[in-house]
Amino acid sequence: ANVQVANYGNRDSLERQTTTDAQGRFILHDLFEGHSGYQVHVSAQGYTPQQLSVQPGNADTPTEMTVTVEPGHTLRGRVVNERGEAVVGAFVMARSGVFRWGMESVRTDEHGDFAFDSLPSDVQFSVSHPKFASTENMPLLLDQDELETVTLPDPGLITGQVLDERTKQPI
What we know:
Strand order of the largest sheet: 2-1-3-4
Structural class: mainly beta
Shape: elongated
Order of helices and strands: EEEEEEEEEEE
Largest sheet: 4 strands, antiparallel
């Protein structure tokens, strides 16, 4: 019960959602066709999310589908700066396979901590904060008892001088 089943079109405003009943049943009306055809996204707390292709039927002969979900993987982590200080409010995004644009994201708390509990095994992470350099497509260890630490590098800094080519004087 309470598994989210959704269908998305090519724009943010195109979305259909429902949740399963106590028997795990659902009905999703008027599916949108996206760039990759008709897709259904299935997600439940503690389980690996899935994105499935489907060919919808009509009211007289609806398509029946059975979705089997696997237990999700967990990750507990902490984002710190190069001095080991917590980075509060960092954006941590999980990406995987068909969810290349991001399947789930969280913000770090006042201790720099974050957690996920519904991840697939092939997930990678991107971590960003406006005051630090970002990290992209980082693999982290799943299902560990200890916190995974992510260090965001300080932003880059350069200094220099601009000179006139002919006079070699500053401009």
